Amino acid sequence: MSLVIAENLSKTYITGEIAIDALKGLSFEIEPASFISFVGPSGSGKTTLLNLIGCLDAPTSGTLKVSGADVSLLGRKSAADFRGKTIGFIFQDFNLLPVLTVYENVEYPLLMVQNAPAGERRSRVLSLLDSVGMAGQKDKYPDQISGGQKQRVAVARALVTKPKLVLADEPTANLDHKTAYMVIDIMKKMKDESGTTFIFSTHDQKVVGEAETIYTLEDGELAGRNSKGGNGHA
Amino acid sequence: MLNLFKIAIRNLMRYKRRTLLTASLIVVGVVFVLVFIAVSGSFKNMMVSQITDSFLGHIQIHKKGYVASIDTLPLTMNMGPQTLKKVEKAINDIPEIEASSMRIKFGGMLSNFVETTNVRLNGVYPEDEIMTVPLFPERIMRGDKTIRKGEILVPELLAKGMKIKVGDMIVIVATNKDGSVNGKQFKVGGILESATGPGGRDGYIHINDALEVLRMDRVEISEIALRLNNFANLENVHNKLNDILSKELNKEGKPAFEVHTWEKLSPFYNIARMIDIMTLSIKLMLIAIVLISIMNVMIMAVYERIREIGTIAAIGTLPGKILSMFVLEGFSLGVLGALIGNLIGVSVVYILNIAEITFNFGRQTGLVLSPTVSPADIAVISIMVIIVSVLASLQPAFKASRMEPIKALRHV
Questions:
Q1: Quick check: A80 and B318 CB within 8 A?
Q2: Are residues B154 and B40 in the same domain?
Q3: A138 — contact with chain B (CB < 8 Å)?
Q4: Residue among B309, B315, B317, B326 with most chain A CBs within 10 A, to mutate
Q5: Which residues of B touch A (CB under 8 A)?
Q6: Cα–Cα distances in Å, from B173 out to B121, B122, B147?
Q7: CATH: 3.40.50.300, 3.30.565.10, 3.40.50.920, 3.20.20.370. Which one for A4-95+164-233?
Q8: Does B283 lie in the same domain as B236?
Q9: Are residues B158 and B215 in the same domain?
Q10: What would the pLDDT profile of B105-151 be if each residue is shown by its tens digit?
Q11: Whole-angstrom distance, CA of residue B344 vs CA of residue A172
Q12: Do B132 and B99 form a contact (C-beta atoms < 8 A)?
């Protein structure tokens, strides 16, 4: 069964008297354990689409199912609950909490969202920090580490709850090429190890090449799909 | 909860200067309120004790209607032996009453054989009077600190005006109950300072002398002053006495007695009330300080951390937890302010006690201010500050918890 199913998905923003169609009738399916990239110029609807899949926003029309749930029907609290259990997020600006250490940042979703027991928290956090190569920096605060290191921590935080889906909006935009590839490599490695689906948006053509399936968005419409392994259906 | 606390504390520490400034405002407020309560409380207690312990007593019992006619000191409204037995029984039934003093009050003329003037006289049992109003002996400026039979304590005002000295002989002339006039010679045993400032025409004689002057063949009492073993029980004892004595009815079927606390008998009660109102106003000011400072700092905190709120909301933190996170910040600030404020406040009160600041009240000079802070005061102020801190944080915290993650994440 597909992890993400979008049918005729549309999103319109209304600003004053002007209606902007950010997404126009998108239909696609994404299989579990995929490594998917959405590409397109600014304003093409990449971020809007990721926000819809991440239950951060609701579609104007159409249906969107994530992990079997119709996310357009979720209320505020149930959407938060659903995100906490099913989806991990990686942000362009890393968005680590500055008052928490690297270890605590990764632990946060387990502690505050899933209320996992202490022993389980510790083993999962340390194992993930080890996987992303940040175990040695676990007691440092975000302002004491580099951008690449921050994004590795963010990847660990996104994966610590064992989500079925990780959404990454321009995860390499603020990184140099070398670090960007390193982060993408880590994401691929984690996908292979945990079977988690990664969906990320990017402008970077070199990074795009690392995706198994690439969806191209133009003016809110799906303009193309290239697949290396055939994990998505347009 | 502990983890939420940890995050709240770290967020407070993140903006050290702002946290320190806000906490300082609360500290100053708490110190000010504590010191004010301690000092005004001390002044009030001293004032009340000067009034009650010098002449009034804590509670007074009269025959119904006596207080309304007190200016004329009517002998016709005295309590006879039968009535007195009932009152004495009621007094004995209440263990909180430590002492009582029966007084015959009457008006008379005082003559030093040169001049004559009117005087208000109190016939008392000296031991009972001193037990009931223990500061009474201190009012005797000259002469022995007691009232002997055949002697009179002359009020200072009259003594000065008529040049009466201790040891002089004077004559008291009074009209007794049936309208006839009688006189008796007294030796001046002492000069009595007024308890309530300049003025006052109250002299004191032994109760047996009063009976003789008034030609009473039995004891008839105008008022009974009571002293309680604990002043805090005033209202309780007053109610108990009222309950017992209100059952005693006069010939018209109405209550035979009236029981008054000092508050109803002295105009100084209004000053005491004013002190209470000022204390309340100061507490309201503290609430305003805490409310505004905490609300201001929490609104700033929410505004500065919109993206963080978006992040934690996006990764699944429930709105209730986000709300708790911010409320705990306000709570922690309140606790910090209350704690330091109480410590400094208590220290200031301690220093004021060491400094032994003196003040005058009425004719009393050199009264030493002895401010005290009760654990109840500290508890009330602390709880008040903490509750107001939490209330002040609620609106910003609620705003944070209701924030749309998508909008918060877009915030620059």
A1: yes
A2: no
A3: no
A4: B315
A5: 3-4, 7, 10-11, 13-14, 307-308, 310-319, 321, 405-406, 409
A6: 11, 14, 19
A7: 3.40.50.300
A8: no
A9: yes
A10: 999 999 999 999 999 999 999 999 999 999 889 888 888 888 999 99
A11: 53
A12: yes
